[in-house]
Amino acid sequence: MSALLLLLLAPLFTGSLKWLKARLQNRRGPDPFYDYKNLFKLWRKAWIRPQGSSPLFLLAPVASLLGVGLAAAFLPVLPGVSFAGDFLVLVYLLNLGRFFQVLAALDTGSAFGGQGSYRESLVSVLAEPGTVLALGAAGLASGSLSLAAFTPLSQENALVYTLALVALSLALLAEGARLPVDDPTTHLELTMIHEAQLLDHSGPLLALYELSAGMKLLVYAGLIALLLPFGPLSFPAVLLLAWLALGYLETYGVRLRYLRLPDLMSYNTLSGILAVLGVVLRFRI
Amino acid sequence: MNPLIETALILLGLQSLLALLRPPAIGFLPLSLGGSGLLLLLAGLGAWLTGTWGTPLDASAGFYVALLGALYLGVGPYLREYLVHHEPHRARLEAFLLPLFAAAMVGVLLSPPGYTFLFLWEGMALLGYLLIALEGPNGLVGSRAFFLASRLSGAGLFLALILLVRKEPLVGGLGHLVWAGLVLGFGTKAALFPLHAWLPKAHPVAMSPLSALLSGGMVKLGLYGLYRAQDWVGSPPQWVGWLLVGLGLTGAVYALARGLAEEDYKGVLAYSSVENLNLLLAALGAYFLLPNPLFLLAFFFHQAAHALFKGLLFLGSGTLPVRELSRLGGLHRLLPRTATWSFLAALTAAGLPPLAGFLFEWYLYQGFLAAPQGTGAHSLLVLGVGAVALVGALGAVSYVRLFGLTFLGQPRSPQAGDAHEMGIFGQLGMGVLAGLLLGLSLFPAALLRPLEPPLYPVLPLFLALVGLGGGLVYLLSRKPQRAYDTWDCGFNQPGLMGSALTPEMQPHALGYSEQLLRLFPFVELEAHLSREGMLSPPRVRLEVSDWLLALEARLARGYTAFAHRVQHLQSGSLHLYLLLQFLALLFVLGVVWR
Amino acid sequence: MVGRKSLDALIRLYALQNVLLALLAFVLAEGERHFVLAGLALLLLKGVLIPRYLFWLLERLGVSHEVESYLSIPLSLLLGGVLVGVGFHVGSSFVLEGARLPEAVPVALGLILLGMLSMVSRKKAITQVLGFLALENGVFLLALAETHGLPLFIELGVALDAFAAVVLAGVLIFRIRTTFNHIDTARMRDLKG
Amino acid sequence: MTMLYLLLLLPLLPALHALREHEAGRLASSTAAGALLSLGLSLLAQNQAAGPLRLDGVGLFYLLLTDLLFALVALYARAYFQAGKDRESWRFYAAGNLFLFAMHGAYLAHNLGLLWIFVEGSTLASALLVYHKGGARALEATWKYLMLGSVGIALGLIGVILVYALLGGATLDWQEARALVRGADPAQLKLAFAFLLVGFGTKVGLFPLHAWLPDAHSEAPSPASALLSGTLLNVAFYALLRYAALLGSAGLFDFAAGLLQGFGLASLLAAGLFLFVQRDYKRLLAYSSMEHMGLAVYGLGLGVPWLAMLHTLFHSLAKTAAFLSAGNLLLTYQSKLIARVGAVHQVWPATAGLLVLSLLTLAGLPPFGLFYTEFQALLRSSPLLMGLYLLGLLGAFAGLLWPLSRMVFGEGHGVGLGAPPRARTLVVVPAVLVVLALVLGLFPPVGVVERLAEVLSWKL
């Protein structure tokens, strides 16, 4: 259920984000629903198979979408499957998608694909421990390892949750390939991370990739929403907040130098560790 | 003893004898080694699942027998095809020694602690050494490292088991001494950090089927011993648990990072083995501290999974034309089946759901997350979560790098364009392991039944992935498509010279991980620029400097220097010798008059 | 013995030593036949035959008759003195119950120690042999002093062994001379490690 | 009984034969025949006594071992000298039989004085074996051996004299001495033992008295090295066995045990260091002998003579095989340097196999016998000594391993020395020894040796 919801929402979110950024930059910008049209257009096109590529070239966008989609299914935005330890399956399904994507980037033997591949690898290594630690801390504080049973932010767990939210927000930026980690609008191959891996994918394959990237962003937003105390309104609230924040950040911010990434992401890991320690040692404000 | 196991051992013995014939009878290998594998698998699983070997601890031997059996089942047919390419003299020796090695491993599992156990343990080391040494000059360093470590392990076990065999009460420090011996003995074999150094030296140089047996099977015996020792000695003291968790997690991260700095395909696999083993040791150590069944589930399940996927990967490595990643590439075209098998194994190794590797991490996370229910310092084990997450992420990168650089892209050297797929027996061997791996992934409960495992919905997830994925792929493949060159920034215009991309533009094996390695202070990459002539393009050579290996080398140098100093006693001077004799006499007289 | 610079003197000294030992054996014999026999053998073998053999050897070797040592003469005298002192000092603990001639025990020990000293410090092969012979004499004296002498056949066997050893050593010294052009054992240091 | 005298003098016949006959084939036959005949005779002559001679269990054990090894080495030597184009092999046979005579004497002698005489005799005879045809290095080795050995044995004589005096000059017969020694002054008996230990210890090759050992073993022709290591070291060890039992009878074994264990472990640990930096494979084997004699002495120090005897048995078999294989290497590569030897498994597979098996035996690996004896020794050690013992074993193993790997499996650069000699005997003789070591290792003859060692027992 959540998966379908996210699938439908993702193009709207990314499309309207482009519109928002254009507005902030005093441009007219595309229609907020542009991404639906774009995806539809791409889906109908033919696709190019680079010479010498393997079946993975085709499998990767599929797996990427499925990984994110199935991960979204575990998100209790709408009622769905739930069991102890489901958040781990969620995180690792995201990994599954990325694994294929990063691998396929090496498939064509292109210089940029390879570059994108190892850059994305670095990002994943930097972001993953923080994410898992933050979610684990939340689970510990809630007394259950099932996402559906996460208790919302309250007086008691305020510090732990704040730390977890910091970690997850940073993870959202990194995994969603947004500024300051990655610049989704760049056209210079040398500076790309996410886009460099998609250079050779075209038509429907590109559509799947685009869709899964948008969904991934929403999955992280959904995770963040779980920790907030607004009940059913949490998810829309987070989406709105993220929409505004990303629009602002990507208009006024600059991309961080790639080699400085670890500096930024160390806050992610540190918050995660502190969050977990906070539960164990019963940090209170 | 179980008649199935007896038959299996007899089969192995017969194969050894047959190998001595001229020409060596290696044709029987699928039947003898593979057949014994099947028997062992059945017998072991029977014992493990029904607990017929007595206590749960006892039944664990059955688990390991089955694990070895599964490997033999795959290696048997594979070896038959592999040995055909060796010169007869060498093939004979290998076909003679390898079944004995296999039998010794099973024998260890069947022996109670004592003389027979040590006999087989050291015998196993000896056979393993000879098998590696047969590689000739290339195998020198590796076989030596293997044998030295094995003897170190043997020394630890001698200490522990002899104290046990004596049946004296283990009072005072003796209990601790026994455990120290066990940790040294079994830990060395199971590549416990920092005693693991031998493994990445030895496993890569062994022939591939042997590497599969070593990495998949033999090292597990160290884990078996540490687990089983509870049965022999009683529960371990606290420090054992902390040591295993601490060193295990450190070692896992170290090994992964170090593996990223490795250029040798089998070297990467070896470091991955170190990583997996250390994580397993950490799981066991955590189990010693907090007897949470989740740790036990993680411990057992992943041993089976690791045996299968690592066995499969090593068997696959036997097909590669060269081992250096920086000379491989694009092999999926020449070796489509090997690529498929290896891909399945790599997916598992990367810990991705719904395959077996993920379940391990799933159990491990939950186990560590349950730690705060413990008291005092134990609750700090929860930090293990971070380490496991880091390991998970690094593991995935490591296998992307390994598989991607080897099988995808363009060949990086002429040799990589000249590879040959294994024939029917080779495919059979890999296929068996792949099948078992898939079975294990989809039906983990079948193996874990005795431990009553909690599970996530594995099968539905798998079906959803395969079903939806299959559907999407079907749709996509029916869409119009055409082949074209890879994107090269538009340099490839009609009338120009073709694609501007060359294989050298792909990521280099070390370049791929260079930036990741900056995160880890213990492995350093140094870039050396060199230029052959004024006009030739500069070449970058990356050198790996490893803090641990440097320390090891320094220790070795120090020991050698010390030995040289002692050697001065034998300086050739008769007068000195006579003086020594005189002093020895004075010394003894001193003892007498004391 | 440790102070002399000339090999000839050393050999003569050694011969004299043996004559004295033989006399001692005769004195202690008190008519026991095997003592007399042992003494005679000693006189013949060590007092006459071995010194003559050594002189013959020295002559044929054609090397200098000078004693070469790691230690200077004063130092070696000093060390020798110390060792004899040590011998006398610890001698008492060597004196067994029922020793025939307790007074000779320290002397024997001193002789043994001096023999060892000259073997450790002297460079020429032939001087080492002389040191060994002195040591042997010390042992013999010890046997005389402590016991009623070893059983005769043992005594003879021991003497035979010593004689064979000296002959063998002589042959070897001769070979050393032809092979190396010297008989300086301090320079034979090819085998090491 | 005349049989004992016959047994004693038997080796002199081939020795005399060697002085007259210089043809290697016939000499080898007569020598081997002599040794085998003594082998049979000694089985018949067990427990007989004649004058100062008596053949008890321990003596028989070592006599059989010595004769067997000698016969095999004699056969090997023929092929060896032939392949090496050595026309003066008669020297080896003459000195060898003289040496065997001394060995027979030592094992038959029941009189401690006589034992001393024959041990000294074996030194002189083996000096001839080492010298063989001479040459600067052999000369140097012989000289050093002679000097150190003679001084050592002279110190031993002091011990013998002191023991004799302590017994009141009554007897030197071992059996009687054991009964009498109970009344002796313990302090002075300890003093005597100090001299005996240093004296015989020199010939056993205990650290730091071992200096002659590597020189002599490496410079002697290979069959002679095999004899030195396989039989000569045993004879001195045998003397120590007798004296240890003597001290045991006097109730002083604890004192002896400390010294024996100390020297044993010191030899083991030192040998490990020497082995590790060794560049000459014959010296390597020599240091390994030092290691194993150390282990045997340690085993004796544990108060288990049969264990020590078993250890020397396995060591003798394996080391003889190893030295004979080393002889094959020397014939093939013309160099004793490890660095000059390579790829033996391709150049001469049979020798490679023998080398591997014998060296692995010496490294104490199963299924060979030394694994068993080392296990048994550890079983009887205190934790601290166990630790040192294991450390020493590891050190020695580390020392042996690299040369073994290097020579057998390493690169055979620039060894175009033509085909190796193909005489069967060169391989068959060591193979017999290795098989023997293997069989005895799988089925250690503990019961037999224990029974043979009963005479030494002092724990009543």
From TrEMBL, chain A:
Topology of the protein relative to the lipid bilayer: Multi-pass membrane protein
UniProt KW keywords: Membrane, Oxidoreductase, Transmembrane, Transmembrane helix
Pfam families noted in UniProt: NADHdh
Chief location bin: membrane
Residues passing through the membrane, by range: 56-75, 87-112, 132-151, 158-174, 217-244, 264-283
One Gene Ontology term of the molecular function aspect: oxidoreductase activity
EC numbers on record: 1.-.-.-
GO CC annotation terms, alphabetical: plasma membrane
Cellular localization per UniProt: Membrane
Protein name from the UniProt record: Hydrogenase-4 component C
Source species of the chain: Calidithermus roseus
Gene field: hyfC
UniProtKB/TrEMBL annotation, chain B:
Keyword Ligase: no
Main location: membrane
Residue ranges annotated for the NADH:quinone oxidoreductase/Mrp antiporter transmembrane domain, each copy included: 116-374
Transmembrane helix found in the keyword field: yes
Pfam families referenced in this protein's UniProt entry, alphabetically: Proton_antipo_M
E.C. numbers: 1.-.-.-
Highest taxon of source: Bacteria
InterPro entries noted in UniProt: ComplexI-like_HydComp, NADH_UbQ_OxRdtase, ND/Mrp_TM
GO molecular function, one term: oxidoreductase activity
PANTHER family recorded: FORMATE HYDROGENLYASE SUBUNIT 3-RELATED (PTHR42682:SF3), HYDROGENASE-4 COMPONENT F (PTHR42682)
Residue stretches spanning the membrane: 6-21, 28-49, 61-79, 91-110, 146-165, 177-198, 210-227, 239-257, 269-290, 341-360, 380-403, 424-443, 455-476, 574-593
Membrane-protein topology: Multi-pass membrane protein
One GO-annotated biological process of the protein: ATP synthesis coupled electron transport
Subcellular location: Cell membrane; Membrane
Name of protein: Hydrogenase-4 component B
UniProtKB/TrEMBL annotation, chain C:
Gene Ontology molecular function, alphabetical: oxidoreductase activity
Transmembrane segments: 9-29, 35-58, 70-92, 104-120, 127-145, 151-174
The EC number(s) this enzyme carries: 1.-.-.-
UniProt keyword list: Cell membrane, Membrane, Oxidoreductase, Transmembrane, Transmembrane helix
GO terms under cellular component: plasma membrane
Enzyme class: oxidoreductase
Keyword Transmembrane helix included in the entry's annotation: yes
InterPro entries: HyfE-like
Main location: membrane
Subcellular location: Cell membrane
Keyword Repeat included in the entry's annotation: no
UniProt membrane topology term: Multi-pass membrane protein
Source superkingdom: Bacteria
Protein name, entry field: Hydrogenase-4 component E
Organism for this UniProt entry: Calidithermus roseus
Gene name per UniProt: hyfE
Automatic annotation (TrEMBL), chain D:
TM spans (from-to): 58-77, 143-167, 187-213, 225-245, 257-277, 284-307, 352-372, 384-404, 425-443
Domain NADH:quinone oxidoreductase/Mrp antiporter transmembrane, first and last residues per copy: 109-393
Chief location of this protein within or outside the cell: membrane
Membrane topology annotation: Multi-pass membrane protein
Compartment list: Cell membrane; Membrane
InterPro entries in the cross-refs: ComplexI-like_HydComp, ND/Mrp_TM
Recorded coiled-coil stretches: none
Oxidoreductase is among the record's keywords: yes
Single GO term (MF): oxidoreductase activity
Source superkingdom: Bacteria
Keywords assigned by UniProt, alphabetized: Cell membrane, Membrane, Oxidoreductase, Transmembrane, Transmembrane helix
Protein name: Hydrogenase-4 component B
Gene source species: Calidithermus roseus
